[in-house]
Structures are given as structure tokens and as C-alpha cells.
């Protein structure tokens, strides 16, 4: 048996591999860059070896440094995780030359399937249904436009060696095809060191459904059901689930068998995923094959009861698969939400900085009616770097059915305390609340269709607004009670906490009377509505459960700052002020502070590096004209002019690092 594994990766997936290796009694070796010197995977591994500077090209993508680390640690095998070198056939070849076991597929399979152009040709030869497209290489932007016209818009422009949504663009016309070709080419070169691009037909209203396969070195290959991955943003998966709410048994079986046929065509072993686009009539088309462990593998593990990392290790060691196709189970339903370091209120732009609070919900085991699992690679006090993928962790829930899994996920998201950086927790909560999601009516255009103007938070219903006001009033009363009980006051001068208050929240005022008892409180609003509230909240608690009339068991995050009470639940984020009636009347007369005028400035929307500036001082620009590119977390972000104007000042240079809202240029 393999005795020591070096994990050629970082973050969440490195921690995931370490966990299974420890359960199997196998020693682990972490590698790390300058930026990851204090990372969680470095702390958890038995050994850790420094491999270079922060940019991945100088560390995690450097084959020779990884091989040197394997030799230094005397590791028997390497697990590449996902991303970085996980699908690099040159890396697989190099390990084989050194006699090092790769916990992954053979190089020939990586070479065939990792190249999307070659893989589509092989898929067609193996009898797998494929999407119409141009499988040859594309010379330049003009050639891309010509091909796109021949296929017919819309088209998908993709990096041949891509993955994880990098190097992908949808083009609806010639201009977008030309621009998308160059942007995809740049991203592909930056992320994968391979800038080859191909184009295929974009299937309208598609679902993204993938089949997990597992094969051993003895020729046995099975499929482990499917995963629905249609909730995507910028071609990056956000929410996954297993099984799919759309497939029937006939389609599931056909997709599984085609996935296995494709794997057999390249003598595949280890874990792999065959991705399909499925239309509204359950016609499916091969998209690509990922020759590695997928980010979303936990949902498959939750419904099958299998540890995919353990299977990969045993297969790499030469063991046969311990089960046949007929042994594969499908028990219950699992959901996975990817928590990203990105600000949903700023068009999901990357966010970096220190995690001042990181407290995931409590994980639950197999004996529970519902299960919660959090696969993370960070810790409270750690930093999110600009150099790598923005994923913080993966929150996974399981239930006997889809409705239970969704409800468990809603509660788990509400219970997840994550502070210090912008994150997509409120957005994920908002999706879980939507009727369309709960009905399983998903497509890859879901986010664009449901949030066409971006995410601006969740607006409460009238009942929810009153419930939030009641919670704020209860919290305020508890704070006032504590203040009134401070020792050292003069005799006969103890302050009496009043019962009449006005709660200002959601740009509304809620005059009310509150009566507090041991169980909670009873509140009566000015309109005569009465609400009962139960809670054990005490001053200092940052999260607590509130039962408010019909809205029972609300898990609410509480943050008290001065006279403001911030409440968050279900994607709703509100600031409440609770005042005595006379003070509330005066507060209503106070003028509101207006934000500064930045209409004549181009501000950096995220922490990043300026990679291009297309204008100079004195230039006149038109609406929509490209001004600059900011690169952050391996993604290029084009900044355009929002109005016709003239450049009065350029404040940056190419290569300069900027923080959020730093000035890039000014206009007259």
C-alpha cells in the first residue's frame, strides 16, 4: 500500500485529500508557495515543503519543483487535486519516468481528453452524442468570426486546455466573437499555458449535467450517477446537486453508458467526469471530459456512500474496484454551494483580505436525518490571496429528498458566519429561497435570467419586515436591560427599560409596544398586529435562532455596532435602529449624508493588477469604449466607458496593483 502521498495542490482540495489519507493511515506532504506559508493545508499535513513564489507559474505549476519535493520527502505517490497540474499529461509522463505513482488517470487519457478538440473527435468515434462545432485550431480573431458565422450565433468560444470556466466566452455577434476570442486566448495562456481556442454551437436553454465515472487498472469502469451543475455564473459552477431533478432513469442510464464507453476508448482508470449539455427534451451532447477529481465530488459521495478519494488511492495502488455497476446506490439528495470570495453587491467582483470571522455550521454524521458537511481550506484569521481561485469552501447538505436537502441548506447558510471579505453567502441564500429553484427549473442561464440587473439583496415580504422589526426590538430591549443592571449605580436611580419603541428598518418605521418574558416577548404594532417571539438571545451572541409567529426557527446573524443592529437571514441584510418615540421623531428630521460624487472617475472595482490601459490623457472616449483591464484571481475584467467624455488624468500604469475604489483615471 502507498505509505506517503504528496499533494500537488493547495487550499480546500489539499485538505480534502489529507483527511482521507489520514483515515487510511497514509502520511501526507503539503507543498506551498510564499502566499500559502500559513495556509491550512500546510498545518494539516505531516510534512510541508516550500516550492516557490506566489504566482502559480512559479510554484504549483512548476513540474520540476513538484518532482523535487517528491524526492525530498520520499513520497510514494502524488495526488494532483484539481486545477494546476491535475490534467497535465507532461506532468503524468514526468512522474512515470521517475517511478512515482500518480493518483489519477494515465497520461494518454489526459492527453486525449484534456484537449477538447481531440476529445470531441474521439467522443464522436466512440458513439457519444456531440455538439456541432469547429474542432480545428483557430488562427486569429477574423478567423474566429468567420467560423462563428458558419456555425451560426450564438457560439461558445473555449480554451482547448481549459477548465473551471476559464477561457470561455459566449458570443452573440461578430464583435463579441472577435473580442471573446482574444479574451479567451489571453485567459487560457495565463491559466493553463496553452492558448489554443475552439468554437462550438451554444445550445440555448441548456442544462449542464455530468456523469461521474471510476475505473481501475484491470479494465473495469463504472458510473456513479449524475450531478446537476446548471447554476453557473460566467461559466463557473456555483451550486451543484445529485441526482438531477430533470433526468429520468432511461436518460440517466444512456448518459452513464456513453460516459463509460468514452472512458474505455482511452483505457481510462481513476476518477473522471464526462460532462454533457442536456436540452429541454432530454437530448444530451458531450461537452468535455475532466480527467481528475471534480470540485463537486462531495454530492456524489453523499448519495452513494463512497469516498472517491479513497477509491482513487486504492486504484492507483493497483487494487480492483470494490463494486460493480449493480452495486452503485442512489440514496437521498445532496446539494453543494460554493462559497466564493466575491462581492455579490458589486457584480460578483473578487474580494481579498483577512477572514476576521470564519465559523461554518456544525457538521453532522451519517446517523442524522439530515447531514451537513463543509469542505474548506481556510481558517479564521487567514487571508484570501489575489493569486488563486476565489473559492473559500464548499457547503454540502443531504436529505432524504430534494426539499429536505434545500431546507437544510437554507439553515446551514444562515448559520455560516463569514466576515472580513466580500462573499456570496447572501446570494446563495437568495437562490435557495426562489420558487423556480425549488421547482428544479434550471438552465445554465438561470442566474442571468433571475438576476438580470445583478444581485441587490433580498427584499422582505411585509410579514418578514415585521418579523425583523420584532427581532430588532427584542435585541434592543435585552441590551437596554443589561445596561440598566450595571452595578455601582446610585440607590433609587436604576433606569427602567421602557416598552414603547420605534424600529426603523427597510426604510420603514414600526412603532410598537414590547412585553418581554422568560421565553421571549410579545409585541403589538401600531396597526394592531400582534407578534409572539421566542429566543434565548443574549448580548454578545452573533448568531441565534428566533421563532417569530409563523416564521419559526429563523437563524439570524446579529451584529450590534453602536445604536445600529444588523440582522441577516435568508439573503436579507438589514440595519435597524430602535429608538424611543420622541427620539425617533427627531431622527426622521435629520438630513441624510450623500455619497461622494465619483461620476467623473473610473474606480478600480476590485483588488487586482492593471494589465492594460487603452487610452491616454486628452483622448475623447465613446460609450462602451474599452478603457482598461484589471486582472484578479486569474480572470480578466474589461472596464468600459459609461458615457461620452474626455480623459483628464491617468492615475495608473500597467502592472500596478490596486485596491477597491482606487482611482484609475478621471474625466472632464
Query: Which fold name fills CATH's third level, the topology of the largest domain?
Result: D-amino Acid Aminotransferase, Chain A, domain 1
CATH H-level superfamily of the largest domain: ATP-grasp fold, B domain
**Approximate strand percentage:** 25-35%
Number of helices: 17
User: Regarding CATH, which class of the largest domain?
Assistant: Alpha Beta
- What is the topology, as strand order, of the major beta sheet? 14-13-10-11-12-15-22-20
Largest sheet: 8 strands, antiparallel
Shape: globular
Separation, N- and C-terminal Cα atoms: 70 Å
Structural class: alpha+beta
Number of domains: 6
Helix content: 25-40%
In the CATH hierarchy, the architecture of the largest domain is 2-Layer Sandwich
- pLDDT averaged residue by residue: 93
Give the C-alpha Rg. Answer: 27 Å
Poorly predicted tracts of residues: none
Number of strands: 39
In short:
This protein is of the alpha+beta class.
Present the secondary structure layout:
Layout: E1 4-7, H1 11-23, E2 27-33, H2 40-44, E3 47-52, H3 63-73, E4 77-79, H4 89-97, E5 101-102, H5 107-114, H6 116-125, E6 133-134, H7 141-151, E7 155-159, E8 168-171, H8 174-192, E9 197-201, E10 207-215, E11 221-233, E12 236-242, H9 249-265, E13 270-278, E14 284-290, H10 297-304, H11 308-316, E15 333-340, E16 342-343, E17 349-350, E18 353-354, E19 357-359, E20 371-376, E21 383-384, E22 391-399, H12 402-415, E23 417-419, H13 425-433, H14 435-438, H15 446-450, H16 462-484, E24 500-505, E25 508-516, E26 520-525, E27 530-534, E28 543-548, E29 551-561, E30 564-569, E31 572-579, H17 581-587, E32 601-603, E33 608-613, E34 620-621, E35 626-632, E36 635-640, E37 645-650, E38 657-658, E39 663-667
Parallel strand pairs: 1-2, 1-4, 2-3, 4-5
Antiparallel strand pairs: 6-9, 7-8, 7-9, 10-11, 10-13, 11-12, 12-15, 13-14, 15-22, 16-17, 18-21, 19-23, 20-22, 24-25, 24-31, 25-26, 26-27, 27-28, 28-29, 29-30, 30-31, 32-39, 33-35, 33-38, 34-37, 35-36, 37-39
Helix pairs in contact: 4-5, 7-8, 12-13
Pathway: Metabolic intermediate metabolism; propanoyl-CoA degradation; succinyl-CoA from propanoyl-CoA: step 1/3
GO biological process, one term: lipid catabolic process
Organism: Bartonella apis
Amino acid at each position: 500500500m502507498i505509505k506517503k502521498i504528496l499533494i500537488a495542490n493547495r487550499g480546500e482540495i489539499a485538505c480534502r485529500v489529507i483527511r482521507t489519507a489520514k483515515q487510511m493511515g497514509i502520511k501526507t506532504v503539503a507543498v506551498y508557495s510564499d502566499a500559502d506559508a500559513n495556509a491550512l493545508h500546510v498545518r494539516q499535513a505531516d510534512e510541508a515543503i516550500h516550492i516557490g513564489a506566489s504566482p502559480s507559474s512559479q510554484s504549483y505549476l512548476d513540474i520540476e519543483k513538484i518532482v523535487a519535493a517528491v524526492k525530498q520527502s520520499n513520497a510514494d505517490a502524488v495526488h494532483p487535486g484539481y486545477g494546476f497540474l491535475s490534467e497535465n499529461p507532461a506532468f503524468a509522463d514526468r512522474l512515470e519516468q521517475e517511478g512515482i505513482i500518480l493518483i489519477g488517470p494515465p497520461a494518454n487519457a489526459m492527453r486525449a481528453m484534456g484537449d477538447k478538440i481531440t476529445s470531441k473527435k474521439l467522443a464522436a468515434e466512440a458513439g457519444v452524442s456531440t455538439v456541432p462545432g469547429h474542432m480545428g485550431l483557430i488562427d486569429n480573431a477574423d478567423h474566429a468570426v468567420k467560423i462563428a458565422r458558419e456555425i451560426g450565433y450564438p457560439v461558445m468560444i473555449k480554451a482547448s486546455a481549459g477548465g473551471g470556466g476559464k477561457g470561455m466566452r459566449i458570443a452573440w455577434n461578430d464583435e463579441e466573437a472577435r473580442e471573446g476570442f482574444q479574451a479567451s486566448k489571453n485567459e487560457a495562456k495565463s491559466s493553463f499555458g496553452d492558448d489554443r481556442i475552439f468554437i462550438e454551437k451554444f445550445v440555448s436553454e441548456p442544462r449542464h449535467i455530468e456523469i461521474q465515472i471510476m475505473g481501475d487498472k484491470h479494465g473495469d469502469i463504472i458510473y456513479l450517477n449524475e450531478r446537476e451543475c446548471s447554476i453557473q455564473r460566467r461559466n463557473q459552477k456555483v451550486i451543484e446537486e445529485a441526482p438531477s431533478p430533470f433526468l429520468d432513469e432511461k436518460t440517466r442510464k444512456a448518459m452513464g453508458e456513453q460516459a463509460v464507453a468514452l472512458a474505455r476508448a482511452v483505457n481510462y482508470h481513476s476518477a473522471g467526469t464526462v460532462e454533457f449539455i442536456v436540452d429541454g427534451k432530454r437530448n444530451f451532447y458531450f461537452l468535455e471530459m475532466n480527467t481528475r477529481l471534480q470540485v463537486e465530488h462531495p454530492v456524489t459521495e453523499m448519495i452513494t456512500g463512497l469516498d472517491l478519494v479513497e477509491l482513487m488511492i486504492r486504484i492507483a495502488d493497483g487494487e480492483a474496484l470494490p463494486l460493480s455497476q449493480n452495486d452503485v446506490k442512489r440514496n437521498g439528495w445532496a446539494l453543494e454551494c460554493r462559497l466564493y470570495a466575491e462581492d455579490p453587491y458589486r457584480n460578483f467582483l473578487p474580494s481579498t483580505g483577512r477572514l476576521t470571522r470564519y465559523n461554518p455550521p456544525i457538521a453532522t454524521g451519517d446517523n442524522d436525518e439530515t447531514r451537513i458537511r463543509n469542505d474548506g481550506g481556510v481558517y479564521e484569521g487567514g487571508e484570501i490571496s489575489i493569486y488563486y481561485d476565489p473559492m473559500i469552501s464548499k457547503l454540502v447538505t443531504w436529505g432524504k429528498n430534494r426539499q429536505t436537502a434545500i431546507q437544510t441548506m437554507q439553515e446551514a447558510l444562515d448559520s455560516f458566519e463569514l466576515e472580513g471579505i466580500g462573499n456570496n453567502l447572501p446570494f446563495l441564500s437568495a437562490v435557495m429561497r426562489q420558487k423556480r429553484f425549488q421547482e428544479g427549473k434550471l438552465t445554465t442561464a438561470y442566474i442571468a435570467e433571475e438576476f438580470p440587473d445583478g444581485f441587490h439583496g433580498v427584499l422582505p415580504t411585509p410579514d418578514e419586515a415585521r418579523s425583523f422589526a420584532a427581532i430588532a426590538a427584542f435585541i434592543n430591549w435585552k441590551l437596554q436591560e443589561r445596561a440598566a443592571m450595571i452595578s455601582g449605580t446610585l440607590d433609587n436611580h436604576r433606569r427602567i427599560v421602557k416598552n414603547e419603541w420605534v424600529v426603523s428598518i427597510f426604510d420603514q418605521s414600526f412603532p410598537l409596544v414590547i412585553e418581554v418574558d422568560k421565553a421571549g416577548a410579545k409585541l403589538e404594532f401600531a396597526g394592531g398586529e400582534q407578534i409572539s417571539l421566542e429566543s434565548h438571545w443574549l448580548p454578545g451572541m452573533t448568531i441565534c435562532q428566533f421563532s417569530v409567529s409563523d416564521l419559526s426557527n429563523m437563524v439570524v446573524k446579529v451584529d450590534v455596532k453602536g445604536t445600529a443592529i444588523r440582522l441577516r437571514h435568508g439573503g436579507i441584510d438589514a440595519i435597524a435602529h430602535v429608538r424611543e418615540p420622541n427620539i425617533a421623531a427627531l431622527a426622521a428630521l435629520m438630513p441624510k449624508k450623500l455619497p461622494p460624487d465619483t461620476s467623473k472617475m473610473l474606480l478600480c472595482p476590485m483588488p487586482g493588477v492593471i494589465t492594460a490601459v487603452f487610452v491616454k490623457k486628452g483622448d475623447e472616449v465613446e460609450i462602451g469604449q474599452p478603457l482598461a483591464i484589471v486582472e484578479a484571481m486569474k480572470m480578466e475584467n474589461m472596464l468600459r466607458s459609461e458615457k461620452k467624455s474626455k480623459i483628464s488624468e491617468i492615475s495608473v500604469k500597467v502592472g500596478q496593483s490596486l485596491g477597491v475604489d482606487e482611482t484609475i483615471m478621471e474625466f472632464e
